[in-house]
Amino acid sequence: MRARQIFIPALSAVFLFSCVSSKKFKKSQADYATLQTQYTQLQGNLADCNNEKAELNRQKSGLENDIANLNKQIDFLKQNNTQALKQLEDLSVISASQAESIKKSLENLGAKDNYIQTLQQQMARKDSLNMALVMNLKGAVGSMDDQDINIKVDKGVVYIDISDKLLFKSGKYEVTDQAKTVLGKVAAVLKNQPDIEFMVEGHTDNVPYKSAVLLDNWDLSVKRATAVVRILQNQYGLDPAKMAAAGRGEYKPVDDNSTKEGKAANRRTRIVILPQLDQFFKLLEPKS
User: What is the average per-residue pLDDT within 209-219?
Assistant: First the structure.
């Protein structure tokens, strides 16, 4: 009888220890699965960044080739003009004023050479800033489904595309609560870049639309753009002077409207980081 009393508690302790270990093991398995998912998402983001970096490097290589060709032409013209000027001076065919005019032309060629080099430096700096901005944005919204939000650089311009199913209900222009969270993450990155200006564009598919308030897809796309702008201004404190809202309607599709998937891709809101053209215009101004 005494042996039975000792055996039963011992057996219970072993059973309880086994249950606890099993729970810890299952929790470890769940934690591992979560970490594996996060690792896969990070790998995907890294692959996207590498692809965009390769595209920027390709564009940069093309520009460097163009600049190299222009530099060769400048050197060729300098050599020919210098030789021609010396020959004319030796033959006393031109006057002193004419020789001075040709000399100034040669100096202008040198100034253009410096101008090309400055443009090259500015373009390299702009590419670096765009890549850093894309990395920050992807880091901020990295947990989102790639089908709902897409951040990319195209021809030197940064685009943020957010699908309508994330932002709005069908035929509506009131921003959903889930979308406000996403916009908050985007706003946090843009707020750290006070010099950036951007445009919010509304886009629709080609299905005709009309309501008691809105006449067509033009109206709907504009109302959606202004709804996003107001969220960024009123809830997240972005400077309204740095923002613009525009409606593109159905007229800038990114896919074929003849398919369900194409229509879904075309229903989107796009945030376009506007190039700072004033910086390049300053380069064109004559130096005093």
Answer: 91
